[in-house]
Amino acid sequence: MPGTIPVKDNAQRETVISVRSLRKSFEGVAVLNGIDLDVYKGENLVVLGKSGSGKSVLIKIISGLLKAGSGSVTVLGEDIGAVKGKELQRLRLKIGFSFQSSALYDSMTVCENLEFALVRNKKEMSRLEIDKAVKKVLADVGLSSSIDKYPSELSGGQTKRIGIARTLILYPEIMLYDEPTAGLDPVTSMEINKLINQVQSEYKTSSIIITHDLTCAKTTGTRLAMLSEGKILRQGTFDEVFNTNDALAKSFYDYNFITEP
Q1: What does the alpha-carbon distance between residue 91 and residue 109 come to, in Å, rounded to a whole number?
Q2: Is the distance from CB of 79 to CB of 91 less than 8 angstroms?
Q3: Given a cut of 50, is residue 261 above it in pLDDT?
Q4: d(CA 134, CA 235)
Q5: Is 57 helix (H, G, I), strand (E, B) or coil?
């Protein structure tokens, strides 16, 4: 279950990601407009927001895939905007990015997709160690029987699981999930939510989960942050964020949980 880490005063908790006054614009249009956000060790932080609210831009900046317009992002004690070259590559190995599309290579089997991450980044590993690592991570995501399949032979949920497995095989300290339940049916979505919690528990990760799915947020989130118009509107537990008369928060809740008759 989410929230398995003890609830403490934030000042007593180790900060693994710190975002301060972060701004980012595209062609003169502000997407992030002064973001302040912390992620604490061992938690699943859910960042909520409607499509186009800047959620994915935020985690791409945190992972070093995009440059900030201004402000600062510190990851595991290092300024992500200042590190370059081999130092940036080394830091990125500690950050697992689970893309919305899963980003698997269609021409490779599941086994080859998983091996690729190790062969590229862990050149010191022996063939035996690589085989053992692949089998372990596939068992951890519940897909040992899919080792020789190609991505085209997998369901949407299986593809998501393999994408997560390819990230976990490097044992990252931080996991970034971009819309992990997008395009999945409710049953498969709940399976992915359960897997995210298992990852937190078994791999001791600190995570940011980007989603507009409130069931995902409620199931996985230790803490929530709602993004609106480029700023953090509300933060707290699920109940703290949505137990409010704030019109934007209520409309987001209603969009997810209330349907027209």
Answers
A1: 28
A2: no
A3: no
A4: 38
A5: helix
Tokens representing 250 are 């209520």
42 close to 238: Cβ distance less than 8 angstroms: no
**CA 105 to each of CA 20, 66, 71, 212: distance values in angstroms, whole numbers, following the listed order:** 36, 22, 35, 27
Stretch (H or E) spanning 16: strand 15-26
Task: Tell me what pLDDT residue 1 has.
Answer: 44
In the three-class reduction of DSSP (H, G, I as helix; E, B as strand; rest coil), residue 69 is classed as: coil
* Angle at the Cα of 114 from the Cα atoms of 113 and 120, rounded to 5 degrees: 90
Bridge partners for 234 per DSSP: 226
Query: Among all chains, which residue has been given the structure tokens 């302040």?
Result: 36
- Other beta carbons within 10 Å of 177: 29
Contact yes or no for 54/32 (Cβ under 8 A): yes
In sequence order, what DSSP letters do the residues of 35-48 get, joined into one string?
Answer: EEEEEETT-EEEEE
Pick from 116, 214, 223: nearest CA to 163: 116
pLDDT tens digits, 59-77: 999 999 999 999 999 999 9
Cα radius of gyration (the chain): 18
58 within 8 A of 47, measured Cβ to Cβ: yes
Residue 60 CA to residue 55 CA, distance in Å, equals 9
Q: What six digits make up the tokens of 243?
A: 């137990």
Percentage of the chain lying above the pLDDT 90 cut: 73
Q: What does DSSP assign to residue 209?
A: E
User: What domains can be seen in the chain, in order of their start residue?
Assistant: 1-6+15-94+174-261 (3.40.50.300), 100-171 (no CATH)
DSSP state of 24: E
Of 32, 146, 39, 161, which Cα lies nearest the Cα of 102? Answer: 161
